[in-house]
Amino acid sequence: MNVARYFDEMSYAPAPESDSEARAWLKRHAEGFHHVIGGALVPPTDGARFDSVAPATGEVLARIAQGDAATVAAAVAAARKAQAPWFKLGGHGRARHLYALARAVQRHARLLAVVEALDNGKPIRETRDIDVPLVARHFYHHAGWAQLQEREFPDHGPVGVIGQIIPWNFPLLMLAWKIAPALALGNTVVLKPAEFTSLTALLFAEIAADAGLPPGVLNIVTGDGATGAALVAHPDVDKIAFTGSTEVGRMIRAATAGSGKSLTLELGGKSPFIVFDDADLDGAVEGVVDAIWFNQGQVCCAGSRLLVQESVAPVFLDKLKRRMATLRVGHPLDKTMDLGAIVAPVQLERIQRLVAIGVAEGAALHQADVELPQTGCFYPPTLLSGVQPSATVACEEIFGPVVVSMTFRTPDEAVALANNSRYGLAASVWSETIGLALDIAPKLQVGVVWINATNLFDAAVGFGGCRESGFGREGGREGVLEYLKPKAWAGRKPRVVAAPPTARRVEQRFATPALDRTAKLFIGGKQARPDGNHSRPVLSPKGVPLGEVGEGNRKDIRNAVAAARAADGWSRATAHNRAQILYYLAENLSARADEFAARIAAMTDAPPAKALAEVEAAVARLFSYGAWADKYEGVVHTPPLRGVALALNEPIGVVGIVCPDEAPLLAFISLVAPAIAMGNRVVVTPSERHPLAATDFYQVMETSDLPAGVVNIVTGASADLAKTLAEHDDVDALWVFNSAEVSAMAERLSVGNLKRTLVDNGLLTDWHDPAAAEGRIFLPHAVQVKNVWIPYGE
Ligand code: NAI
Ligand code: MG
């Protein structure tokens, strides 16, 4: 044996990371782990526990407590008790705690990295160099938000008690992403780790207690999906934050509908990885390695759909196959391994099953000829090429080390293929032509785009998706807002609804009658007769008939949504252009102020001065959103790498809006204006009882250069129309300012395409108060933030 031989062979020797400290910690808990509630270790009800297994070997590492509804209730009570004193500590006090957590994570970095690798099966190189450092970074960053809270968010307060449910793919990192912002801003937490990977959460709870985190601020209840469901169902939880499968995300959306709980969902993905013919192909090959073989491909934003420009596809796939042969798969604690184990047998079987389906549906299978350990859950790096866009493996999230490849010819085709997915989480774009890459990024329907890079994360840069990848963002200022609620909305009282008037017979006289004017619907820029050819009377509060409006139905809503969908030019119009049109609407409304005031007075019995004040407020509101249109912009992040991340405020798409009866003109304008200012197209159902101000507004729109289809109005029964909007898969977001019942129904029926919802739960907004009804309180709901990462340098 001589040194020269090593140089010849260049083979790897095992380089195991020591697990003795981790073993000692596990041994201290050999009798079984407990829940962590109110600072105490709480044993499971009836001693119920389940195994946590090392997927690389099948060894049972620990016994984990199974939480039930009673355990969850105790944890929620502890969190509730701790919430007020935790918030009262103040921003600086909480900042010191989060800073202490960041430092504690760094002090225990090695132990955390080893326990994570053992329990999850991911390689130590990743837990040591990626997971744990990002965890520390998250606590540092959010210590900063705590420090700045009082000055940066004076109009907001904490949400309260947060229930958080996390998956097994990044157990400690997802814990940090969830609890750091929640705790920083004065909320308290009940966290349920995934049943496969509870250990680092329990270790973290010990570390946090040692670091002085007060009891009850962070409670950990371990268990399975039933435990998670109990947390979701608990009435004293103010918000649920979930990361996991789209299937469970849907169940949680349905379960929380109408409860008043706020919700963020970070769900699955099938993210495109687009390689143009002018890309640095070797760089892009390394990109694919990071995109799909990082964490064995068990990554929600994994670049699992490889789209390669046809002219370079053979060369590129060839290079990729050669690179695959050099990947090493083996024991997670071996520092030379690129891939570790799949989390559990059930996940391994899912991967095997989906790959078999891919092959049966015609894909060519290439697996790296790598040595796999004899036992444990291992799967080789896999490429399925020649995949049809409609194939199962091109549509379903495999959540394993399997990339599927397809080809495209033109940039437009690449965009179409990339967006041909139910999901919308992330995308990676590879081209040396910066103009091309930056042209593609805004066209991708996703929350994150990496240019010539992949799987970059930072606490300052928001992460999250759209469509069936969920809603809400983690990280950045937008992530902070998810854990705050506006003070102006906190004190809203239930809306009081007067009984509907009964129509009075109006005494007939010999006089020239007014011209009959039945307001139609407004769809695609035209006044349209309702599909059913029915109309409904509009009565004053005393029952005097004021006119009639069209009785819209499902078909009318569908036509309106189609018109809004087609008006996508508005979403690409410049902000300046949108601003001009909002000012023009204001000008034309102002010119007819007296007429609108008379209409409001007749419909609501408001005194003339009050009716005029509503019109003036509506004019001012249009002006405000004209002002905001080119000012609610994104930010440029400078995360710790050479490069920038552009946080762009993009329109959501088609927004359904259900208006209340109060302030029939001002509420209508207050809801429509922010949506269109940010480039959305809307389908609105105006006040059911007092719709005539909205129907009079048709003429204002017709004279203000508003492009056809940007604002579509369907009058009729709010609840019925809201139902169709909620069920419609081409509606991207739904705002309901109406009854508690309509709010609940809208949330429940939004599960189809997981549209974003904003509902008032029947609580009355003061539309005349700009703090409650204008500007920064609405604008975040009118945009979705897309973060475009642009690393630079050679
Ligand atoms: P899952 O969605 O069932 O599990 C995620 C978390 O939700 C776990 O903590 C689980 O205990 C909890 N949970 C399960 N049912 C629940 C319910 N009814 N109410 C509340 N909480 C509940 O995901 P699972 O079963 O571990 O994996 C299945 C598939 O989901 C994977 O193959 C993968 O495709 C996908 N997945 C996606 C993730 C992502 O980050 N996008 C993460 C984990 C899984
Ligand atoms: Mg495990």
Characteristic terms for this protein:
single chain, 794 residues, alpha/beta, 32 strands, globular, binds 1,4-dihydronicotinamide adenine dinucleotide, binds magnesium ion
Give a short overview.
With 794 residues, the chain is α/β, with parallel strands linked by helices.
State the distance separating the first and last CA atoms: 41 Å
Spans of at least 5 consecutive residues whose pLDDT stays below 50 are none
Estimate the global geometry from the Cα principal axes: globular
Mean pLDDT: 96
C-alpha Rg, in Å? 28 Å
What class, by secondary structure content? alpha/beta
* Number of contiguous helices: 29
Tell me what the structure shows.
The protein is of the alpha/beta class. Helix 14 links the parallel strand 14 and strand 15. 1,4-dihydronicotinamide adenine dinucleotide (NAI) is lined by residues 165-169, 192, 194-195, 224-225, 228-229, 232, 243-245, 248, 251-252, 267-268, 300, 347, 350, 397, 399.
